Amino acid sequence: MAVAEINEQGGIKALDGAQLVLVPADAGDSVQKATSAAQRVLNRGKITAAQGAWLSSFTLGATEVSERLGIPWLTLSWSDKITERGFKYVFQSSSVSSQLAEQGIAQAVALGSEAGKTIKRVALVGDNTAAIVSYFKALRERILPKFNLEIVLDEVFTPPLPDATAVVQKLRTARPDLMINGATSHTDVITLLQKMREFQVKVPMIGLGTQFTTQEFRDGVGTELVEGLMATVASHALKGQGQLSERFKARTGEPWMVQDSVSGYAEMWIIKAAIEQAGSADPGKVRDAIAALDLKEGPAAAALMPGYIRFNEQGRRVDAVPVIVQWQGGAPYTVYPTEGAVKQAIWPQ
């Protein structure tokens, strides 16, 4: 959608209206396939910049290729490792896992306090993919102790999760005030929540990632079960983005914009701004332009909180802020931070 809008609005003005051409590649279902896909598409020539992949493990592999070829790569993937390798050509548009962990806990504690609920006991349940490993490590070692929160369950599994019975039994025994759900696979999330429903385990929960905010997730779990469930995501449709959301729904047929669509939309406009600033489609010059960007207005800045786009020397977006999304009435809405909230949060019972 972003590419179409950019081209409809005159393309790259600094290059006499040159049109952006999107060259998609399927990352597949493994790190090896994602890396191979990056090699195929980036070696075809005339690639100015790239974006993807969703899963951090895939992005770690794919960006080895883009770095070697000197092609700038934007990603919404969370893992700290992505920008800890000293690479020059990779940029993260979202907070990294360790930052997201602290920001997400602070937001959850604030929401609980506003609802008159004190959070003291926390359960960690998630898989061992790269982003969740980084996220949970930061929680265990630094963030939960900082907030004086006790870990009453720490359960990590290797996906796929064939049966969630043992996990849910432990969860029922632990009786946490808050569960942090770090299952990244759509099917694992559904398996876990369906088993919680079977055992009648009701725990206030914050999921990690956009897989908790999709129509497929709601339909797989059931509208009644997802009601009130919250998720920490890098981005989601914000207050004041009604027109953008309507354009998205009309163009795609999807019922709402989730993290992948919001961040992907913003990243294409970031690439467009960098090409304009560089006055060139040369990947090296575009990379330097991305590193020097300071966007305070326009589609990219408006799509991502806190409303401006800058990157530090590591390639991480400065002051990137996640949002908390909550299911209300069968749809996911941004509920925190307040300045971007579409609806008021309701603490789940």
From TrEMBL:
Q: Where is each Leucine-binding protein domain found?
A: 1-328
- Going by the entry's taxonomy, the superkingdom of the source organism is recorded as Bacteria
Q: Which UniProt keywords apply?
A: Signal
* Organism of this sequence: Candidatus Entotheonella gemina
Is Signal found in the keyword set?
Answer: yes
What protein family is recorded? Belongs to the leucine-binding protein family.
Record-given protein name: Leucine-binding protein domain-containing protein
Q: Name one Pfam family in it.
A: Peripla_BP_6
